[in-house]
Amino acid sequence: MSSAARDTKKQVAELGEKYKYGFVTDIEMERAPKGLSEETVRYISAKKDEPDWMLQWRLGAFARWQQMREPTWARVHYQKIDYQNAYYYAAPKNTPKKQSLDEVDPKLLETYNKLGIPLHEQMALAGVAVDAVFDSVSVATTFKAKLNEAGVIFCPISEAIRDYPELVKKYLGTVVPVTDNFFATLNSAVFSDGTFVYVPKGVRCPMELSTYFRINASETGQFERTLIVADEGSYVSYLEGCTAPKRDENQLHAAVVELVALEGAEIKYSTVQNWYPGDENGLGGIYNFVTKRGDCRGDRSKISWTQVETGSAITWKYPSCILRGDDTVGEFFSIAIANNFQQADTGTKMIHLGKNTRSRIISKGISAGQANNTYRGLVSVHPKAANARNYTQCDSLLIGAKCGAHTVPYIEARNPSARIEHEATTSKIADDQLFYCLQRGIGQEEAVALIVNGFCKEVLQQLPMEFAVEAQKLVGISLEGSVG
Amino acid sequence: MLDIKNLHVAVGGKEILKGLTLSIAAGEVHAIMGPNGSGKSTLAYLLAGRTGYDITQGSVTYRGEDLNTLAPEERAAKGLFLAMQYPVEIPGVTTLTFLKTALNAQHRARGEKELDAMSVLKFVRKKAEALKVSEDMLKRALNVGFSGGEKKRLEILQMALFEPKLAVLDETDSGLDIDALKLVAEGVNALRSPSRAMLVITHYQRLLNYVVPDRIHVLAQGKIVAEGGKELAHELEAKGYEHIAGKAA
Lengths: 484, 249
Fold this sequence. Notes:
The complex is a heterodimer of chains A (about 475) and B (about 250). With about 475 residues, chain A is an alpha/beta fold. Helices cover about 30% and strands about 30% of the residues of chain A. Chain A has helices at about 5-20, 40-45, 50-65, 105-115, 120-125, 135-150, 155-165, 165-170, 180-190, 430-440, 445-455, 455-460, 465-480; strands at about 155, 195-200, 210-215, 225-230, 235-245, 250-255, 255-260, 265-275, 285-295, 300-310, 315, 320-325, 330-340, 345-350, 360-370, 370-380, 390-400, 405-415, 420-430. In chain A, the strands form 2 sheets. In chain A, strands 1, 2, 4, 6, 7, 9, 11, 12, 14, 16 and 18 form an 11-stranded mixed beta sheet that branches. In chain A, helix 11 crosses helix 13 (about 465-480). The two termini of chain A are about 35 Å apart. Chain B is α/β, with parallel strands linked by helices. Chain B has one domain: Rossmann fold (3-Layer(aba) Sandwich), CATH 3.40.50.300. In chain B, helix 3 crosses helix 4 and helix 6 packs parallel to helix 7 (about 180-190). The interface of A and B includes residues 435, 436, 439, 446 and 453 of A.
């Protein structure tokens, strides 16, 4: 079992226990009043028992946000979001837990089944209160002990704000400033929880760290905040998985992820995003407006982003690297799949500030149904970044005749020694490729999955083993029904 | 094994096959020869079930079943194999992965046990040696960067792996030099069996020097215009298609 699954089990176990012990209080009490105001921000901060400096930080962000406008430059279309018609804080939903799998949305179960998640994990993920499942406390403890031994801090960010205020103060908002962009500023004001990781000097984190995010209508987690700091010479690999149940309304997810790599440190950040994409008519689904950025602050540091984006109605996401130190390396490996009415506008920014900085971008966009998939990327070489190098490869694959693929590369080179390469291809799954597979006995959907996985291979190879298998299956599932 | 009766086939509204009748029994090897545009490849694609090839009249019965009711992948699982004239490339998918996926899909369809990666590798290696399909080829993406000869050898390797009941070979000789041709022909001959039927489609007689057919049919303008034993190939080679087709008309 992956540590992601263990985490989830633990979280669900805790929820289950609350229910078991009659912890259900009036849920309205756990919810901030509807709408967004200074009151809401204060409410959230108070709920989290935060120190005053954190509250002030949030209030500053909120004041700023009120003067900002929602960006419109991305190639995505959606109805205007009414920010006053939403809840910004809701404690875990304490409605009676489902007693058996029969009560769970069969489509959700089908997905878990196809992902090969075992039955007891399915129950955990679906929020079924089955006691037998919740025996993972000791597992979680041994895993915490191992990290403690290495000196790695891995905890909810709300806990870190209380327990490690100096570390949080030193780094929070230093990569994605409070004023960065509309959604990041909103997140700074109202973030509910998230993850904090600190890897001390010279430590190679002994295991893959992972978090499994899940949106439930009234649960927290729509505005998570993640901060990962890798101190000098350290290494950490972090995995993030996301799922969401099927709902008719659109839900906003505006997360911020900040990575700081000090001298000689390396951070590998992988995401498998499978938020609910809406149904085949484009109803519902998550609006995924996420700001992810890494700062190679020290010389010879390295940050790698790998993402497999299969879900969400709208994806607006540009995991970026600031190559501040000399000899730093930034990488971005991406698979973005858009089917039915999904819209994805995703890419990266590689900002070369230091000397001898290198960046590599491999983007694979797959569009099917009536979906639109845009790669948008910036490679910027600043005047002092001597000998900067970038290699960008953007490949688009179209399935069917009603979808679209767009590539929007921005390149700015302000140092004459810069070497920037950009390659782009667009292809279709050819009829003769499909026919060839069928003739050899491979069914339509398996054939599409096989061809698409081949197309994505370079990126899939970047994922940690246990995630790669899951991601491969997910690629197949998210394209089901796209041909025929 | 295969019974084709008065078959008319249209592609994009245009009739290509115009009343073809042909019957092949288990253990037999038949050849279809004919000039370009006579409908040879149309027949191959129709048998394999490619979309866009529609029967407008007549019937095709394969092992007692109406072939037209079966999806292409069902035909494959039921033992129909088409060695293609132009094997396609699938970037990023290694040949071995492709072979494993196809083998297991067929096994699944027939309710047989699926093979794990090791068993597939062993099985493939055993068959690959005779056809000089190297380990390196198996690791490369399917047909990507393969030479013409390598592609055709891989087709015959697949035929050996899938052990079909009816194998259709569409212009397997095209683009091969004499050494490659011999190698491929040996591979085909090794698969001749009393329980297997083969339909060899070719433009030239030279393949038939190595894969000697029991019966030859000459196709011209969508119809069989001449039939005979293996000696017919030599007559064609000497006198040309026009002579034979003209005589028939």
